[in-house]
Amino acid sequence: MRFTDKVVIVTGASSGIGEGVAKKFLEEGAKVVGCGIEPAMKIEDSNAIYVQADLTKFEDAQNVVAKAVEAFGLVNKLVCCAGVTFIGSLENTESATFMRELSINLGGVFNMCKAAMPELQKHEGSTVVTVGSDLGVHPIPERIGYCPSKAGVIMLTKCMALEYAPKIRVNCILPGLVRTPMIEQRFQEAEDPKALEEAYASLYPLHKMGKISDMANAIAFLSSDESGFITGEIMHVCGGSLI
Ligand SMILES: NC(=O)c1ccc[n+]([C@@H]2O[C@H](COP(=O)([O-])OP(=O)(O)OC[C@H]3O[C@@H](n4cnc5c(N)ncnc54)[C@H](O)[C@@H]3O)[C@@H](O)[C@H]2O)c1
Residue with the nearest Cα to atom 31 of ligand 1? Predict the structure, then answer.
């Protein structure tokens, strides 16, 4: 039970990786404050609350922190999972769509961290983990907004790690493909889902897609005292795609 007496805000807890992370923290004794754009999360637990928030708005991020303190008295862990993937090239993407993706994926992390830092600073051993992507390091076609937004998350993480050391450790994970609702639609639309899974697996030296639990385990490690000498780290949890 690494997170007894810890209170964690998990953004994007209404789906996919964020939902898995919220469950992991609950299993390990934490109180969890989930947030996301949906009206509710699926997790029902007396140690968890949910706050609907559009993290492109700083006031919504501030409200998540206020509700967390109201419910559980403090916040000493933050995990930023919320994000979107829009598909498109420079040529076929509208400027407003590009700005929207940056505003959710990068601006949302900025807003949540800025809102939470004053509360995190009050407590010893506070941590932040952000979720980037291997595509923030290695671009692929048709991700004209996504790749730069995730590159931004990587650098934002390093900037915050410097700014808040030694008090708060700030780290980032770079997932490879994980079968979450963000990806599920591609399987539903595929003529041969098995072939698609094989095609995705072949992108990775470990020859498989990631699991939500792979991401939750890495995030739990970076949020725990076991990683006490690690900050500003960009952890590749992507099956070797960046080797
Ligand atoms: N699934 C993958 O293959 C994969 C790979 C690399 C990186 N990632 C990253 O992992 C994170 C989680 O991805 P996922 O696959 O679990 O996605 P998902 O689509 O299952 O969940 C996305 C979450 O983000 C939240 N969200 C979206 N817009 C928001 C907004 N404006 N304000 C607040 N919350 C908002 C949603 O409410 C939802 O909870 C994302 O940052 C994504 O870029 C995912």
Answer: 54
Nearest CA to ligand 1 atom 34: 36
Look up residue 87 and give its DSSP letter: -
Instruction: Provide the CATH number for the domain around residue 59.
Output: 3.40.50.720
Q: Which atom of ligand 1 is nearest to the CA of 17?
A: 16
**What is the residue range of 167's domain?**
7-179+211-237
Distance 127 CA to ligand 1 centre (A): 20
Cα of 46 to ligand 1 centre, how many Å? 24
Give the HSE-up count for residue 159: Cα atoms under 13 Å, Cβ half-sphere.
10
The answer to whether the beta carbons of residues 22 and 77 sit under 8 Å apart is: no
Ligand 1, pocket residues at CB < 6 Å: 11-12, 14-18, 36-38, 53-56, 81-85, 104, 108, 131, 133, 175, 177-178, 180-183
Q: State if pTM tops 0.90.
A: yes
Per the domain annotation, does 1 fall within a domain?
no
Question: pLDDT of 165-198, one tens digit each?
Answer: 999 999 999 999 999 988 888 899 999 999 999 9
Would residue 50 show up in a list of annotated catalytic residues for this protein? no
Residues 6+ apart with CB under 8 A from 203: 176, 177, 239, 241
What total of structural domains would you count in the chain? 1
Given a contact cutoff of 8 angstroms between Cβ atoms, the answer to whether 17 and 133 are in contact is: no
pLDDT in tens, 125-153: 999 999 999 999 999 999 999 999 999 99
Residue-level pLDDT at 171:
99
**Inter-CA distances, 66 with 3, 12, 49, 56, 61, Å:** 21, 17, 12, 17, 9
